[in-house]
Task: structure prediction
Amino acid sequence: MSSTEGAAAGGGHERTRLSRLRKRIAQNVSESRRTAAHVWTSVEVDYEALEQVRRRHRAEFREREGFSLTYLPFVAVATIDALAAFPEVNSLFDFSEGSQTLRDRVNLGIAVDLDRSGLIVVVVPDAGSLGPEELARRINDLAGRARAGRLWAADVGGSTFTITNPGSFGSFMSAPIINLPNAAILATDGVAKRPTVVTSPDGSDVIAVHHIGHLGLSWDHRAFDGSVAALFLGRIRSNIETWDWEGYLGGETAAGGDE
Result:
């Protein structure tokens, strides 16, 4: 009798061999936990203004591109701006050499779920030069090729910062494992309609139903401190809530986070 058959006879359990991918993920996340000083910080974000723009464009975008216009490329653009303002978050920390390299380019890693068989981080090089629509195309292409097993070595190496998107599966708050040698990883969690307090044009406070979500940042305390993490997330939140996303989709440059 095989071990699988014996287990099944005893209680209906099934024992399977770990895949090479599952082993690699286990090794990588365990090494990250042993190496990086993991801390988690989160913020609540009001996506309502962005949602209104996305709603106006999503049907035309899907018809033209063949896939959905999600929040992810917008969050990515807002995050790239914040990385320029807080380069420590985009840095390479090397304790053994006693150095920290502040990088001026963002090679954006995106964690892709391979139909529940594992995760792989694909990379969009020099993502700071791209707007939300082009980022959406790049991410969709990489994710599709990842699931089809058609990635090149250049598609999975050299990330400087990573975003993971558990919100597509309905998560509320997530604290992901840092993708070493990155100094941090951002989780974009689910967005849902919730009551919230907003300021009306006359300055009074009113309760309204808006699209609300959370962003969670796991970061390496060796590379920077809590003030940087909080300010970095605050910059992303401000960008999402205040930028002219309609202008972005129209081919114009949106107002920066400081404006």
